């Protein structure tokens, strides 16, 4: 069964939201101060100096989300973002699959032989 328009919009929102968090540096694995603090974060004191010393971790660009039958795809220039971003995306898609629409598999990178990508770089939806 082909995804409905509403289901496609959910998928687009997942990719767009994930990209904007990455564009703003949200997936910086070098600056995970709250995560590294542990369980008791009630009176956590964020270290701005430590944050400023960490290297930038920014996504650069995103193409249009495309749909073909049961497939969806989107091109991203991950720039200097950390691999943490991909874990967050996979976790998000897994929960989306549990709550809304079954997603049988996720492929990161590569090319679908039945749906080749254009030879040139895709036109970006959100230019730098």
From TrEMBL:
Database matches in Pfam families: DUF3531 (PF12049)
InterPro entries membership: DUF3531 (IPR021920)
Stored PANTHER family: OS02G0827600 PROTEIN
Protein name, UniProt field: DUF3531 family protein
């Amino acid at each position: 069964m082909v995804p409905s328009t509403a289901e496609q919009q959910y998928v687009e929102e997942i990719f767009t939201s994930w990209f904007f968090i990455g564009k703003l540096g949200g997936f910086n694995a070098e600056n995970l101060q709250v995560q590294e603090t542990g369980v008791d974060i009630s009176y956590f004191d964020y270290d701005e100096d430590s944050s400023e010393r960490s290297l930038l971790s920014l996504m650069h660009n995103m193409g249009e989300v495309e749909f073909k039958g049961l497939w969806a795809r989107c091109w991203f220039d991950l720039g200097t973002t950390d691999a943490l971003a991909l874990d967050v995306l996979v976790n998000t898609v897994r929960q989306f699959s549990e709550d809304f629409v079954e997603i049988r598999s996720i492929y990161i990178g590569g090319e679908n032989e039945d749906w080749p990508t254009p030879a040139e770089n895709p036109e970006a939806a959100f230019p730098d």
